[in-house]
Amino acid sequence: MSDLRELYQEVILDHNKRPRNFRAIAPPSQKAEGYNPLCGDRITVYLRLNGDVIEDVAFEGSGCAISKASASLMTDALKGRTIGDADSLFAEFHHMVTAPADAAVETGRLNKLAVFAGVREYPVRVKCASLAWHTLRAALEAKHDVVSTE
Ligand code: ZN
């Protein structure tokens, strides 16, 4: 288990140092901003949808290693997937990070996202790991036909 832990830590550190899809999409079809006041993590998630398919997803922001690595791995996992896939991955991810610390880890289709299983031992870190996903949810729910009055 400690080998697995080390591997998980390495993946998180790597994605923190070299986050994937760390950029804006201009213009995005949808975007949303997220903030985790417990840690100070801030993120903007950008989406370009083609019908039901997430053609491109990217993020910008600043925060701790967990929040950044989570956004990086999330964007990697979601590119080319459908909104339905994103919803079920979010459900699985959420289930994993909020499960009791002594429960078996059900990684299901999470693949690399399973590296965040360790955060359930640290309730504050659960917010860091989930921030990108909640922000994605908000971006998906944002109507792209709404124009700003500003
Ligand atoms: Zn954080």
Main sheet, how many strands, which sense, barrel? 3 strands, antiparallel
- Measured as a percent range, the helix fraction is 40-55%
- CATH architecture descriptor: Alpha-Beta Complex
Domain module count: 1
Beginning-to-end CA distance, first to last residue: 53 Å
Structural class, please? alpha+beta
Q: Ranges with pLDDT <50 over ≥5 residues?
A: none
Q: Strand content of the residues, in percent?
A: 15-25%
Structure description:
The longest helix has 19 residues, at 123-141. The chain has a 3-stranded antiparallel beta sheet, covered by helices on one side. The termini are far apart. It has one domain: Sufe protein. Chain: A (Alpha-Beta Complex), CATH 3.90.1010.10. The radius of gyration is 15 Å and the shape is globular. The chain is of the alpha+beta class. α1 (2-17) packs across α2, α2 crosses α4 and α3 packs antiparallel against α4. The chain contains 4 helices and 3 strands. It has helices spanning 2-17, 65-78, 83-98, 123-141, and strands spanning 30-36, 41-50, 53-62. 43% of the residues lie in helices and 18% in strands. The protein binds zinc ion. Zinc ion is lined by residues 36, 39, 41, 63-64, 66-67, 128.
What does the secondary structure layout of this molecule look like, with pairings?
Elements: H1 2-17, E1 30-36, E2 41-50, E3 53-62, H2 65-78, H3 83-98, H4 123-141
Antiparallel strand pairs: 1-2, 2-3
Helix pairs in contact: 1-2, 2-4, 3-4
Bound molecules: zinc ion (ZN).
